[in-house]
Every structure is written in structure tokens, then in C-alpha cells.
Amino acid sequence: MRYQRSKGLFGALIVHEAQSDIREKLGPFEDRPERKTLIIVDQDPSKKKSRKAVQSFCLPDGSSLPMHFRRFTLLIYGKDPATSPLESAGNESHTQFYVVSGRNYRFRIIDGALGTIFVISIDYHKLYIIATDGSLVKPFETDFLIVHVGETYDFILKAKKDILPGSKYPIRIQSLAVNCKNNSELAGQGFVFLAYTNQSIKMTSPTSENLIVQNDRCNNKSKPCTIMNCPFKIMPKNYSKPDTYMKCYDILSLKLLYPTPSFEIPKSADFASEFFFNFEGAKPRASLINGIRFRLPAVPILENEDAANECKYPVNC
């Protein structure tokens, strides 16, 4: 799987919910997973060196990480994200998510990393969590979302009203890991962008750009930022920058949108069963899953508009 690890995930199996009254409960929103799915993987450049990685990064509370590294980088759809918000100026090579002012959009996040916990936020925008690991939940408003390895989250993005086409806001993908001696120094971060446009279908960038960056977020002690899926009871001080104030909420703060059907609740008499994918690397540029060989495409499917033998969304194959 080294090719896939170095080039990013190539796609995602997304199953739409069977319930027909979702929008009655959650309100209207556009759901286009082929355009609003954020797939994140990590890579550790220190592994390419002969020197052994040292424990220079920790979680903000000082606890150890499951794997040690000197520094890591991110891949979004198999591409390098911007390392600074300013890289977006006149640059369309970085991933951009297009929205129209006043509309609501469903975003999906997949953490496909080896061992990195990510913190997701969008400057000047709230995230309304509506699903985690395939289970719909009642909307939960938050400023930041922590996504652990292997987790998936869905949120509604409410595009602001009266925003001119060309306005662009950074989407921040930050590591929860920080320098063991300085919580303001992140182990890594990357930026993709939320771009406002006047076209809901055509994926072209507006001609004029206005980058809007929020540098003063979470600096009000009396009104701290909200951070969901937090592994701490109290968020350690100075995460990502000095004088930041955040209030932690764990996943138990989320409430199911639909009660779990009684037939899905395990009973003591039920036999345990286990299903798994057995991944194995194979050459050239292929992989084995449960002994079946799959050839990987040359470019990520989500970045290729005309993939061979592709079932166009919505799928009806």
C-alpha cells in the first residue's frame, strides 16, 4: 500500500441514509460528497532519513504519542496542502471547496492517517456536526473538531449571507500534537480553502480574490471557543498559539438523531462475529484485500473528472 500511502486515498464508499425525513430534522442542505469530502492522510518525512525519530512532540497535556516523528506533512486528495493561508493568493493548485453565499452544505471528513490526530476549523465559520462514524446526530455547533485516526465526521457548513464571490477563507487542518516544550508549536498543519462563488455547479474560481484570515480567534477568556471530540476534560493552555481559550466537549455530548432500533442492540445470547479487511502490499502498484488483487488508478478518483468505467454519482449501477 506504499503507493496509496504516498499518493493519498483514492476515494471513499459513501452510503446515503435510508431515512427520508433527514432534511425535515436538519433543515435544507446540499449533499454532494464527490465535491465536499475531505480525505486526509499523513506522511513522516523523517522516515526517509537514517536517523531514528525522537520524541519531540506530545499531546498538549504532555502525554506521549503512539508513534514518534520529527515532523510530518499532510496530503489532501493526494496533493500537498498550502503551508500558509497566503499561498492561496492567485494559486489554484491547492484544494478549494466552492460554496454560494446563503446556502448550506454537508461536508464529510475522513482521517486516513497512520497515527495523526487532526483538528479541523474554518476561519469565521461554525461547524454543525450531524454525523460521526455513520451515525446521524442532532446538530452540535462547534468552532473546532478533533478527528482521531480512522474516524469520520459529517458537518453542515452554513455559507454566510451577502458574501461577495471571490471571498476565500482558510480551512485549517492542524495536528493535535505539539512540541513537548511549547504548546503553541504544532507538529504540522496545512490549509485548503473555502471559496465563495456565484456558480453552484461549475468548478471554476472567481476572477478576483479576497483572502479573509481570522487571527484573533479564541482570545476571549470569557467566551472560549468550542472544541468537539476533545480527549481532555479541560483543554491545555496555549494550544496552537499563546493566549487561546477553548472549552472541551467529548463525543458523549452528541445525541443520536434517530434512536437505535431494538433489533440492532446486541443481546446476551447473540454469537460474536468479526469481519475484517486483510491488506497486503503487492507490486507493481497494486494491493491485495482478502487475497483479491486490486489495481490502483494513476490519479485519485476524486480529482479525476473522467475516470474509466466510473459509475457517475448518484450511483445507479
Automatic annotation (TrEMBL):
<dbReference type="GO" id="GO:0046872">
    <property type="term" value="F:metal ion binding"/>
</dbReference>
<keyword id="KW-0560">Oxidoreductase</keyword>
<keyword id="KW-0186">Copper</keyword>
<dbReference type="GO" id="GO:0016491">
    <property type="term" value="F:oxidoreductase activity"/>
</dbReference>
<protein>
    <submittedName>
        <fullName>Laccase-4-like, partial</fullName>
    </submittedName>
</protein>
<dbReference type="InterPro" id="IPR045087">
    <property type="entry name" value="Cu-oxidase_fam"/>
</dbReference>
<dbReference type="InterPro" id="IPR001117">
    <property type="entry name" value="Cu-oxidase_2nd"/>
</dbReference>
<keyword id="KW-0479">Metal-binding</keyword>
<dbReference type="InterPro" id="IPR008972">
    <property type="entry name" value="Cupredoxin"/>
</dbReference>
<dbReference type="Pfam" id="PF00394">
    <property type="entry name" value="Cu-oxidase"/>
</dbReference>
